[in-house]
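We emphasize that the prediction below concerns an isolated chain of 182 residues; any contacts that depend on oligomerization or on bound cofactors are therefore not represented. The input was used exactly as deposited, without trimming of termini.
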Amino acid sequence: MQIEVTFRHMEVSEPVRAYVEEKLDRVKKYIDEPIDAQAVLSVEKKIRHKAVVTISAKGITIKASEETNDMYAAIDAMVDKIERQLKRYKEKLKKHKPANGKERQVQKTVFAAESIDVGSPEPTIIRSNSFPVKPMAVEEAVMQMDLLHKDFLVFTDSMTEEINVVYRRKDGNYGLIVPQVK
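Result of the prediction step, given as a token string:
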């Protein structure tokens, strides 16, 4: 397991780093693939201690954060939160059969708003990302979206092998966009 600990607005502390590594070592029992963990520890206004961790393993990314008035308590609460998420994820995986579809690449592009408003022939591209879209069931896509704390997720449906989008609605429910070919 690769653990990277970053300290912000506080001095680097080896005992705190060792404590984070020891605590995050507990989550290995939930995921058997190689794991990358990034922990960011910060102090704001000398009283708010915040611990944030992002774990990437076997095609999933899980984030958790906690804020208290003690760094060790924040780390403990953050690890408890990440363990609960991983337990829930593992239980849901047991209920679903694995997807055997092929993985696709998706391109995400962000355009500058001014270039579209002016009506110029070519909009200005600010940023462009390419990422793999893994085949999964709709329930797994909703779970992945919750684990990542995102408002939408593009995925390949494991049954139809079509690209779909699941999104969080303003009322708290979820929506699914399924393209129809004519």
